Amino acid sequence: MSVHDIVDNLQGGWIGGGGPESDVVVSSRVRVARNLAGMPFPHLLNKEGADQVVGLVRKASEDERFLARAGRIELVTMGELSAEERQVLVEKHLVSPDLLNQFEHKAVAIDGEEKISIMINEEDHLRIQVLLPGLQLNEAWQLVNGVDDALELNLDYCFSEQLGYLTACPTNVGTGLRASVMLHLPGLVMANQVRGLLATVTKLGLAVRGLYGEGTEAVGNLFQVSNQVTLGRTEEEVINNLLLITRQLLEHERGARAGIYRERRELVEDKVFRAYGLLKHARILSAGEAMRLFSDLRLGVEMNLLTGIPPELINELMIASRPAYLVKTGDGRKNNYEMDVHRAELIRSRI
């Protein structure tokens, strides 16, 4: 499957749903930052240097030893993709928003299953990422580690025996590893417990961000929780710490859902079925309203209040109703009103 096909695919990777603890954990992500020895960091690279990095990664990913260990991935420069295609990759969480800034000498490599993506010349020369559905941090780490080792057969990384992997930002020095989980926490939000719990999580050395990472808001009751410390801990310690805290959040969220449903059953059912009715019949839907309704619909599916709606459909609609995908499929409709009408049409056709 080519990257152009991946842009159109709404059923691949984490979007397909499933995975352990998927009633609360939407996805698990692990990525490592790596830089090539003897070359300036990306923000200091000229055009020739940036193109050289892309060429070296392309050659390494096409090597027979890499293919034997990690499988085939397709590498494209960001300039080969349209503006809408680039933004869809962000909306699918396959690349970061930063990869779109001054994209002319940047690239991405993605495997056909949409589990592995390698961002090239973002903040670091390489950002190797694995994204899986549900709570699969250990599995994601093992896959990232395998891809990393396969690339290192042909690439020489910046590494210090004292500090570990050297990165453009000092906060990534050491393992260069960032692990995160995407959590759906409507129960804690309704119980007014989410702010206190997430503040406690922050004190334990984790970061809490919105749907698209740093600097974004938590829409649709979706929160990203990730490690902040990369220096002085092994990769396994980072993963295990995040797993431990995620499991605690899981139990708190399930307890909050059960408590609210026991004490205010009508409130929960009203939110769920009101969301279902609006999504099924609305003629105009903004992006923000759609995300709030998807959260309530997801809660109803996860609590078995609604049947016949697979969880993966909600993931598909969440991506399909984002601005870039709507522009790509909107037959020229691009102003806000037309987009809101198109969004409602698309959602009605699927529910």
Short description:
The protein is α+β, with helices and mostly antiparallel strands and 351 residues long. It has helices at 3-8, 47-62, 64-70, 83-91, 137-152, 186-190, 194-203, 235-263, 265-281, 287-302, 311-320, 323-329, 336-350, and strands at 25-34, 73-77, 107-111, 116-120, 126-133, 159-160, 164-165, 177-184, 206-209, 222-227.
Q: Any idea what the radius of gyration is?
A: 21 Å
Approximately what portion of the residues adopt beta-strand conformation?
15-25%
Number of strands: 10
Structural class: alpha+beta
- In CATH, the architecture of the largest domain is 2-Layer Sandwich
Number of helices: 13
Distance between the termini: 27 Å
Biggest sheet overview: 8 strands, antiparallel
CATH topology annotation of the largest domain: Creatine Kinase, Chain A, domain 2
- The residue fraction in helices comes out at 40-55%
Low-confidence stretches: none
CATH superfamily of the largest domain: Glutamine synthetase/guanido kinase, catalytic domain
Topology pattern, helix = H, strand = E? HEHHEHEEEHEEEHHEEHHHHHH
Mean pLDDT: 92
- Characterize the overall form: globular
Order of strands, widest sheet:
2-3-4-5-1-8-10-9
- The CATH class designation of the largest domain is Alpha Beta
Could you say how many structural domains there are in total? 2
